[in-house]
Amino acid sequence: MGLIAWLIIGGLAGWIAGNIMRGGGFGILPNIGVGIVGAVIGGFLFRLLGLQAGGFIGSLVTATVGAVVLLWIISKVRQR
Q1: Which of 10, 30, 66, 67 has a Cα-to-Cα distance from 45 of 20 to 30 A?
Q2: Cα(57)–Cα(66) distance, rounded to whole angstroms?
Q3: CB 70 within 8 A of CB 34
Q4: Taking a C-beta distance cutoff of 8 angstroms, is the pair 46, 39 a contact?
């Protein structure tokens, strides 16, 4: 997958996760960062569960799930 696709999927996944967890996105660059880190986390979690997602939609779902998990962990750490 090319760099442009990574940025698009990262931005969309970060925006979707921000809307799910906070009710709004973070801005374009933070959304991309959250989405890319979320893609790594989501890929790891999907592999652990034996799941596989391919294509643009599969990558977007994987990145969004990972981004939601990332934002949930961040919210728990900030509560302490």
Answers
A1: 30
A2: 14
A3: yes
A4: no
How would you classify residue 53: left for phi > 0, otherwise alpha for psi between -120 and 50, otherwise beta?
beta
Q: What is the pLDDT of residues 41-80, one digit of tens each?
A: 999 999 999 999 889 999 999 999 999 999 999 888 888 7
Helix (H) or strand (E) holding 58: helix 55-79
Is the distance from CB of 67 to CB of 42 less than 8 angstroms?
yes
